[in-house]
Amino acid sequence: MKKGIAASKGYSIGKVLLKKDKKIKIEEVKIDNVEKEKVRFKEALKNSEEQLQKIKEKAEREIGADKAAVFESHIMLLGDPEFAGAVENEIENNKINAEKALSDVVKIYMATFAAMEDEYLRERGADIKDVGHRILANLTGNISDLSNMENNTVIVAHDLTPSDTAQLDKNKVIAFLTDIGGRTSHSAIMSRTLEIPAVVGMKDITSSVKNGDTIIVDGVEGTAIINPDENTIREYEKKKEEYEKEREELKKLINVETVTKDGKRVLVAGNIGKPEDVKQVLANGGDAIGLFRTEFLYMDRDDMPGEDEQFEAYKYVLEKMEDKPVVIRTLDIGGDKKLSYLPLPEEMNPFLGYRAIRLCLDRPDIFKVQIRALLRASVYGNLKIMFPMISSLEEILQAKDVIKECRKELKKEGKKYKDDIEIGIMVEIPAAAVNSEELAKYVDFFSIGTNDLIQYTLAADRMNEKVSYLYNPLHPAVLKLIKLTIESAHKEGKWCGMCGEMAGDERAISILVEYGLDEFSMSASSMLKAKQLIMEK
Ligand code: PEP
Ligand code: MG
């Protein structure tokens, strides 16, 4: 049994799929049995071809035949007798292992292509490298193809980046386990959105399992059991059943208004990353969207989403939510959220660096596209715009100026938008919380981002499992900042929500109700349990 940090509740029993990012080290090994080595190589070729065939079919369905054609050329290379023959000759002539033989042949091919005059042919060198890497991964059992997986897959990874999770086949992945990360790292948040169990910060889980191992994931206790015996499997099947029964029970609350024991109506809202996530929020009886992390629209692609594309995404969410509030947060990129097409310099402390509103105010070319899309979408529902990572009044004023400027432009162009959109900020930097009395005068609402607020207040990286014991939502300093922020909002007649994971933390809910929090926003899977607890207080 391995232990980590429980990141998303529930139980799963499935098969391991290892996602290894480590560079595969190739060592030369002298072999006696040439035939056996050739068979290993041929099997790796066959497996590679099967995988590529599936990827090609998926790509054809999802991105179109022209873009999927690249996989066809990879498949052709695998079937090229000259290429396979060259590797087999290396094995035979030098009596070396298939890995080393393959790597030598790939290097020769790449050098040959690199020297070609024709640009198209030169580029084929990259295909050889890709294919070579896939065969090698199959030879060494390091294959980690996230888009091509069996049913009941448990992903085991060192870490899962937001763009990795975007690639996953949501119908087949039933749990995540990672070496690093804490409850509020993005892989953990994503697992709660997908409503699948996850354990993070397991330190060495990737080196403790191999592909195809049977594994039990206990997202309640934060443990995993590798290759369990029959009795243990039965025990967990029972736990799973009971857990699912409790979840069914909670469904009775879906259409019940959330009112505290003191008679205060509060909103239970959902956090979303992709427009389609709105369906889960509604299915769990969500009163609002308390946080739309728009950066996910920018991820897992090769270019920025344009104004029209963003407009469609926001309009979709607003329409689906009808007149319920939808808080859309402007781009919060940087930190652990990177874009391949927007290279940012490496930073010593990315969480304290060039990110979110800082980047947006510095890059109006990027920021204005989003603001224009938001304003245009505002006529389709109850939109509220929220700025992330605000540390000072100056930033609020500057960001509001950008909105003003975009309104002017749209007006000139004869495009419609609403005039009375609420504008709020995330309170996730201690300075904003301490100074919330002043900031409350300039905004319509606050939403407390505890994921970051806790890490900055306690100087404990939210991604680092080694300091996760310090990352404590109930630390008195954190609670003081939360209380102050809520009071400051109320003093100015504004509302205050919370969209950090603490809003759905069962230990924190009664305190937050007592402080007068108006809106609790969380992953869809936590909403009903939270509702039950809020109503008990
Ligand atoms: C937060 O910091 O609490 C938050 C909700 O934002 P994110 O997790 O996207 O940083
Ligand atoms: Mg944050």
CATH secondary-structure class of the largest domain: Alpha Beta
Q: Output the CATH topology of the largest domain.
A: TIM Barrel
| Largest sheet: number of strands, sense, barrel closure | 8 strands, mixed
Mean pLDDT: 91
Helix content: 40-55%
Our count of helices gives 20
Task: Describe the protein's architecture and organization.
It is a single chain. The model has no long low-confidence stretch (mean pLDDT 91). The chain is of the alpha/beta class. It folds into 3 domains: 2-19 and 145-232, Glucose Oxidase, domain 1 (3-Layer(bba) Sandwich), CATH 3.50.30; 34-140, Enzyme I, Chain A, domain 2 (Orthogonal Bundle), CATH 1.10.274.10; 251-535, TIM Barrel (Alpha-Beta Barrel), CATH 3.20.20. α19 links the parallel β15 (495-498) and β16 (519-522). The protein has helices spanning 34-63, 65-78, 81-94, 98-114, 119-140, 162-167, 186-193, 230-250, 278-283, 295-298, 307-320, 356-362, 364-377, 393-413, 430-434, 436-439, 450-458, 476-491, 509-515, 527-536; strands at residues 2-3, 5-8, 11-19, 153-157, 173-178, 198-200, 214-218, 223-226, 267-272, 288-293, 325-329, 382-387, 422-427, 445-448, 495-498, 519-522. Helices cover 46% and strands 15% of the residues. The longest helix is centred in the first third of the chain and has 30 residues, at 34-63. The strands form 2 sheets. The protein has an 8-stranded mixed sheet. An 8-stranded parallel β-barrel has the order 9-10-11-12-13-14-15-16, surrounded by 4 helices. Bound molecules: phosphoenolpyruvate and magnesium ion. Phosphoenolpyruvate (PEP) is lined by residues 291, 293, 332, 428, 449-452, 499-500.
